[in-house]
Amino acid sequence: MGYGVGISPFVAIYSAVEDYTNGHLTNPSVPENLRDVLVAPVVLGAHAIVGSSSVVLAGVTLGFGCSVGALTLVSRRVRPFEIAHGNPARRVQIRNREHLLAFDEELRARAALEGLELVDPTGRRGT
Length: 127
Known about the structure:
Layout: E1 6-7, E2 12-13, E3 16-18, E4 37-39, E5 43-44, E6 49-50, E7 55-56, E8 61-62, E9 67-68, E10 73-74, E11 82-85, E12 90-94, H1 97-113
């Protein structure tokens, strides 16, 4: 999780999900070879925002400064600065890149004065 991430109430973030639509069984008490389980990290880029009651599934990356609207199902990546919402999530708009990057530079400068290093796990700050 990157710095400045906002996670609203009732958000569910899953690092493991089961697919039972292709004839597999589901449940931790069922032997693993009868299940289809995806276990993958969820990466939240710096300044990503996730709206209330949204669900983020395993293997998803939310890019730098993106915004996910309330009640959204996120099953694939949301690119930096995108605004996405719906079920499934769809891009509806792009946030103001220059504005966000300018504020981010100010935040990073303030953090540096305090001896702090801010980290974005996506490694793609602002791209």
